[in-house]
Design goal:
By secondary structure, this protein is mainly alpha-helical. The chain has two domains: 32-77, Arc Repressor Mutant, subunit A; 94-234, Tetracycline Repressor, domain 2. It contains eleven helices and no strands. The chain has helices at 3-21, 37-51, 58-65, 69-72, 79-91, 104-120, 126-129, 138-153, 158-179, 196-203, 209-234. Helix 2 crosses helix 3 (58-65), helix 5 (79-91) crosses helix 8 (138-153) and helix 6 (104-120) packs antiparallel against helix 8. It is flat, with a radius of gyration of 28 Å.
């Protein structure tokens, strides 16, 4: 055997040895970590924070995740599925622990304040989630189950519970927008002379800063709703 042939054989043997010693990737295993629903949810929230709800598209979401759209579609079939993930993520943060003690009013208060605070941080999603079916959203269904159980424990007729929840939610969603409203939203400016009483009421409004004013308004409204619902139940109006 010539020296060239021997050297070539030695190189082949060395390469074969390195190949044997190198860890091999399992067949069919992707080179990157598989996407999770939590990753998709976080990326979708970031998109909405940056660009509003209009910025949430499947192509934009895939780009933010650093994957091809086809990889994203392996986990969510359509934008509707992404919205359900977002719905479940937010509803899981709503506090229903107040109902654990079997007292309806404290439970409703804690739930309502928590609900408002969660959505005040995600107002672009309110118009979507407010009308999104709860189908395939286990955390959302669990939240409603806990609230319903709290109503039942207080003696509410089963057929009126959902109506009462919807009435409260309508107020909660609107109040979430009030949290982010500009401080001068009711300033009448050059129209003050034509609305002197309203302008004076705005000037005398209690609180410092929009957050305390929104809290005051929410507290008044929630008190009124709780009192009204309690009175109707006590009088047999339900």
């Amino acid at each position: 055997m010539s020296m060239d042939a021997g050297a070539s054989s030695a190189r082949r043997d060395a390469a074969a040895g390195r190949a044997r010693d190198s860890p091999r990737r399992a067949a069919g295993r992707p080179p990157q970590a598989v996407l999770s629903k939590a990753q998709i949810t976080r990326a979708a929230l970031k998109l909405i924070e940056a660009d509003g709800y209009k910025g949430l598209t499947m192509s934009a979401l895939a780009k933010r995740l650093g994957v091809a759209p086809s990889a994203l579609y392996n986990h969510v079939a359509a934008k509707q599925d992404v919205l359900v993930l977002l719905e479940d993520h937010l509803m899981a943060m709503v506090d229903v622990s107040g109902f654990d003690g079997g007292q309806w009013e404290p439970g409703v208060r804690r739930w309502a304040w928590s609900y408002r605070d969660v959505f005040a941080r995600h107002t672009p999603l309110i118009p979507v989630i407010a009308v999104l079916p709860v189908t395939n959203a286990p955390q959302t269904v669990a939240m409603y189950e806990a609230v319903t159980a709290g109503f039942l424990a207080d003696g509410w007729p089963r057929d009126r519970i959902v109506d009462a929840i919807v009435a409260l939610e309508s107020f909660i969603f609107g109040s979430a927008f009030d949290v982010i409203a500009p401080p001068d939203i009711f300033e009448t400016g050059g129209l003050a002379a034509s609305a002197p009483e309203f302008s004076a009421a705005v000037a005398d409004r209690w609180g410092e800063g929009e957050t305390s004013r929104s809290d005051s308004a929410f507290g008044i409204g929630l008190d009124a709703l709780i009192s009204g619902l309690s009175a109707r139940r006590a009088s047999g109006g339900f």
